[in-house]
Design brief:
With 368 residues, this protein is α/β, with parallel strands linked by helices. The chain contains 15 helices and eleven strands.
Amino acid sequence: MSNWDRSNSELITDQDSLTVPAGETTQPSSAFVLPPSFQAHGFHIGNVAIDFPVVQAALSGYSDWPMRVIARRLGAAYTLGEVLLDKFIVQVSKGSKARRYIRTSNEEHPVGAQLMGADPEGFPPAALKLAEAGFDIIDLNFGCPVKKVLGRCCGGFLLSTPRAALEIVGRVRDVLPPHIPLTVKMRRGLDDSQESLDNFFAIFDGAFRLGAAAITVHGRTVRQRYDGPSTWNFLREVKQHAGSRIILGSGDLFTAEDCLNMLIQTGVDGVTAARGAIGNPWIFRQARALAAGQPAEHPSLAEQREVMLEHYRLAEVTYGHHRTSAHMRKFGILGSRMHPRMKEVREDFVAVKTRDQWHAVVEKWYCG
C-alpha cells in the first residue's frame, strides 16, 4: 500500500505541534482596553460575507464537522475544515471517511475546505468535489510545515517553487464555478532568506492576479514550524502592500485579546484562530464581546460541561460509538486548560480509553 492510500490524517497531522505553549492562558486579560478608534468590521471573501473578522483556521486532526459546528454556535464567523490531500479526496466517495472529511451542514455556513497536494493536475478534480459537497470556499495550503508533508513537495514546500504554486492556483480557479471563491494559506517564506521573501511576494501577487479572493499569511517561516514568535510586523507590511485586497493574519492567537490585538496592530482584514480555539471555542464569543466594548466572560463549568457533551454527541454521529472516545480525548486534554484544576483534569483525560470513562471525567470535574 502506498503512502497516498493511507488515511489523510496519517500523512498530515502533527498534533504534538498543535499544543498550546506552556504558560499560555486561554483567557483575555482584564486589563485589555480597546482603542477608541478601533471598529471590528466584517468583510467579503469573493461573494461570501464574513460578518466578524475572527474566524477558525484549518486544523489537521481537529477542525472536523463537530468542532466547526461548535465554533459556529459560539460565534465563529467562518470555519475551515481540516486540510485534505487532493488524491485522498478524489478517492473518497462514501462511507465513514466521506462523513468525516467532506461533510457540511446548513448551520455551519459559510464553511471552507482546505486542499493540499504536490501535482497541479491533482488539485482541480479534488477542488470540484469539495465544492459539490457544499463547501462555500476552497483554500489552498501552501504553508504546512510538517516534515513528512514537505518531503512530498506539498504544503510549505510550494513556497520555494512559485511556478508550481501559481500553476495550482490558476488550474483550480479555472475549474471552480465563479461563485466559489478561491483562497490561499501561506507562511512568510520557507526561511528568512531574501530568496524566500522574493518567492513569497511572487506567489502572493501572482495568486491575486490569477483570481484568488483572499490570502491568509502566518507570521512564521516554514523552517520555524511552531517555534519562536509569529512576526506580526511582517503581517502589517503585507497588508500595506496588499491595499484593498483581503488579508487574514495567523500565528500566536491564543486568546480573544490576541485576536483583536493582531487586527489593531497589523491592519489585516481578519484573523484565523488555530491552536487557541482547540478546547476553547469560546474564544470567538469572547472576541465579539471585547470588540463591542463588553467583558469577555469565562464560561462556567456548567456551560463547559454542556458544550463538551454536545461536542461528544456530534462526534459520535461522525465517528461512531467505538471510535469517538479516542478522538475526543485530545479535546478534553486541551480543554482542561480552561479548568481551575487543570493539571488534575488533564491527567484524568489522558487516562481515558472508553466512552464511559470520558463521560465520567466530565461528570467528575464539570458538575458545577
